[in-house]
Amino acid sequence: MIHVEHLTRRFHDLVAVDDVSLDVAAGEIVGFLGPNGAGKSTTIRILTGFLPASSGRAEVAGFDVATDSLRVRERLGYLPENVPLPPDARVDEYLEFRARLKQLPAGGRAAARDRVLAACGLGPMRRRIVGQLSHGYRQRVGLADALLGEPPLLILDEPTAGLDPGQRQEVLDLVAGLRGQRTVLLSSHVLSEIEHACTRVAIIQRGRIVAQGTKAELEAGAGRRGEVEIRARGAGERLAAALAARGLSPRRETDGDACVVRLPEDGAGARLLADLVREGLPVDSFRPLERSLHDIFLELTRSPAP
Amino acid sequence: MRRTVPTLLWRELESLFFSPLAYIVLTVFLVLSGFSFVWALKGSAGVVADTLAIFLGDGLLFWVLLSVVPALVTMRLVAEERRTGTLEVLLTAPVRDGEVILGKFLGALVFQAFLWAPTLVYVRILRGYGALPDTGQLVSSYVGIACATALLTAVGLLFSTRTSNQIVAAVGALSFNVLFLVVPALVREERFGVLQRLLSAVSVTDHFAGSFSRGLLDSGHVAFYVAGTAGVLVLATRSLEARRWR
User: What are A280-295's pLDDT values in tens digits?
Assistant: First the structure.
């Protein structure tokens, strides 16, 4: 549904999006995760046709976003960051306007509007003026607009920003409920939201995609590249000495029986285990330490600027 | 068939009438047009044709209204949407930039029709006193007002697409309108040669005075305004599209 190749966007000297490549299959809910200012919104604005890329290309539903922008927008429901809405319109009148703009057939417009009003919990607010709504309800109006007309692709830029925990959960449940029915690109800087709703994650930092995959793929990948915990019951001292002799700088665990070491390369684990057993160490367990998505996110996004 | 332009026009009208500025403009317009009518009556010594010519074409207040009102009505059309961010929501909907410009332009034009409509009351007043205005002169004057308003509204809209500050848009459009109206009048003498002929050819006031306020519907003058309006609207569309250029 989304295919992005080497996308770059510069604003004078600032490279906001740097050689981003990304694929999102139909029916997937992909989390676009990164700290504030990482380049999420700029990438999204390019995908929606609002901004051009400096180089690279992006396709949505098979249409180039630069040359076939209108066709892309016909298939897109978009919730921008901060949900800009006209303050003077009533909720239902605004959604009616948007339904007309999206060329929904006259016969089905009222039903479509009522469906999104109900889905977003806006029924009691339908006659309220948008400018008088709380931030949470404004967010819902923006989401209702994005859902209007059941577009095959939803791009939601920070859809839960400014919501209280209950409202946040409702929005995430709503998005999670779309799994398999729509394609969703959900941008956020809050990891727990992405974990809750998304089938796959792309992490962006300083304009570059630094990791992407399912949660399990990212954790497993991080674990293989990471550390192992080796446990030798009653032989913690000998274990630490054996590891130190191999230049591995072991870190003793608090129970004294286990050590944690960072492996120098992939595949070194099996050799190390065989050597330790050959030396007669009573190795009870040899476990790659998997890092949680939280750890991976922090590690990737806290790395110092180049 | 795409019906986005009427949708945008209607939304623009709703938005204009919701804004307090609309009612300020409406009130000031009514007061100034009232003054303008009294001035025209006094200046024409009761000759109906002259009264209409001054009120709807030759009077200074008429041109003040014609140059200021479009700049005020159009200043927020795109600039305010850009400032508040709603432009992003609008332009990521399945709507062409040209349709956005046309919808907003027509919305502003219809709003100004509401402003000018009450001036018909003055014609009714003249009839009440037994002075019968010439229908041809009346119709051609209002056609001229529509043409000139359309051109200056398009200019205002163009300025509004270039900034996110509606005051900047208004000042830009107003400055342009004043230059557009005043400069040709300053070089009216023959000694300016080509410059005089060139500025006269593009002068909004010359085209107006030579035709509409005299009761003449000259297709050449109408074509000047229609072509000028269309040209400026194309520029406004290109200006809005410019954000998509690499």
Answer: 888 888 887 766 677 7
B contacts of A53 (beta carbons < 8 Å): 246
Neighbouring CB atoms inside 10 A of A288's CB total 16
Q: Is the pLDDT of residue A258 over 90?
A: no
Task: Using 70 as the pLDDT threshold, list the residues of chain B that sit under it.
Answer: 1-2, 188-190, 192, 210, 246
Cα gap B161→B237, rounded to integer Å: 9
Edge to edge, the sheet with strand A227-232 lists A251-252, A258-262, A227-232, A283-288
- B155-192 pLDDT, tens digit each: 999 999 999 999 999 999 999 988 877 777 777 666 76
Tens-digit pLDDT profile for residues A209-241: 888 888 777 776 655 556 788 898 888 888 888
The answer to whether ipTM exceeds 0.90 is no
Q: Measured between beta carbons, which residues in chain B are less than 8 angstroms from residue A89?
A: 14-15
Beta bridge partners of A59: A3, A64
pLDDT at res. A221: 64
Question: Does the beta carbon of B91 lie under 8 angstroms from any beta carbon of chain A?
Answer: yes
Fill in the DSSP letter of residue A288: E
With the CA atoms of B64, B67, B72 and B77 taken in that order, what torsion angle do they form, in degrees rounded to the nearest 10?
A: 170
- Cα separations (Å) of B216 from B45, B51, B142, B220? 23, 16, 12, 11
Q: Is A82 an 8 Å CB contact of chain B?
A: yes
Predicted local distance difference test score (pLDDT) of residue A220:
67
> CB pairs below 8 Å between A and B: how many?
76
**A85 shares contact with chain B (CB less than 8 Å):** yes
pLDDT at A76 over 90: yes
Q: Residue A306 above 70 pLDDT?
A: no
Sheet holding A14-24, edge to edge: A14-24, A2-11, A55-60, A63-64
Domain tally, chain B = 1
Q: B90 contacts in A (CB within 8 Å)?
A: 101
> Is B190's Cβ below 8 Å from some Cβ in A?
no
Q: Do A84 and B246 touch (CB under 8 A)?
A: no
Of the candidates B18, B88, B93, the beta carbon closest to that of A98 is on B93
Show the tokens assigned to B30.
């009514």
* Residue B174 in tokens: 């107003």
Reported in sequence order, the residue ranges of chain A that DSSP labels E, i.e. its strands, are 2-11, 14-24, 29-33, 55-60, 63-64, 76-79, 153-157, 183-188, 200-205, 208-213, 227-232, 251-252, 258-262, 283-288
Domain containing residue B63: 4-244
Secondary structure (3-state) at A283: strand
Size of chain A, expressed as the number of residues it contains: 306
- pLDDT tens-digit readout, B88-101: 999 999 999 999 99
